Structure formats: structure tokens, C-alpha cells
Amino acid sequence: MSLNKVLLIGNAGRDPEVRHLESGAMTATFSLATTERYRDRSTGEPREQTEWHNIVCWRNLAEIAEKYVRKGTQLFIEGRIRTRSYNDKDGNTKYVTEIVADNFQLLGRKSDNPATPVQSGRPAQAPSYQQSYNTPQYSAPAQPAQTAPADVQNDEIGDDLPF
């Protein structure tokens, strides 16, 4: 058994870059910043460390990201880690680690106008968006009441990498 699940809350670092592939599939990519705040043990001063994540949305989720995600938008993203490789122009192998979003929720937006209050950093009802995949379920013969998900292999994603 294995699990590849990522949960992130952060702010979009840029507007989504949208591409339409030859297969007709749509993809949107953007960066997401997550910031860890802590206190330095030796000096007692507050510190921050920001991680930047490459987010990839496919199909309907890409359309929604194109419409609603903007630089500064606070998002909750649920997805999985995917690492891919490619050869650069000099023939060197490069590796890219991305978060493939399965769903996300808009939590709010940084206000450009400081006079505009944002309650708790989120709108009253934040919409949630989800990408659906057909995941077959199999029952174990000895225990018919329990099901276990099969390894999810989305062949369409592997066929149409956006690079």
C-alpha cells in the first residue's frame, strides 16, 4: 500500500499559465507560496521560510484556475506529487517536481485596498473545485465488504505533458 497525497494552503505567486494541448486537453500551471513562521532559538527573533510549489491543473480544473486564480489568491490545494524529467537544449537531464491538483478551494485574496476588510482571509462561502478521475474499486475475495483502490494511473496525463 502507498499514499501520494499533498495538502497545501498558500498564495498564488503568479497568474496561471494556460496551455491547450494537441489532444484538446487544457492545462494551467502556477506557483504557490507556503510560508512557515517560527522564532529563532538563539536570538528570539521571528523568522519566515517560504517554499515555492509548482502547481499543475488539468482539464476542468485548469479552466476554473484560469477564471478565478490570480497572483495573491489564497488557496487550499489537494493533490499529489509528480516528478518528471526532460532533456534541456544541451542534452542534460533536468528533473521537475510538481503538485498535480486534484481539487482546490479559493480561500480569499490579498486586498489591494487596505481599507477593504477581509474577514478571516476568506469569503463568506468559498467555492471548492474538484477534478474527477475514474478510479476503479476492487473487492478482496475473502472480505467482500471492504474495497481497496487500485493504483491510479492516469494515462492521459503521461501522454500530454505540458513542456
TrEMBL record:
GO terms for cellular component: nucleoid. Pfam families: SSB (PF00436). Residues 136-152 have a biased composition (Low complexity). Residues 108-163 are annotated as: Disordered. GO terms for biological process: DNA replication. It comes from the Bacteria. The keyword DNA repair does not apply. Residues 153-163 have a biased composition (Acidic residues). Transmembrane segments: none annotated. Keywords: DNA-binding. The keyword DNA-binding applies. GO terms for molecular function: single-stranded DNA binding. NCBIfam families: ssb. Homotetramer. This is Single-stranded DNA-binding protein.
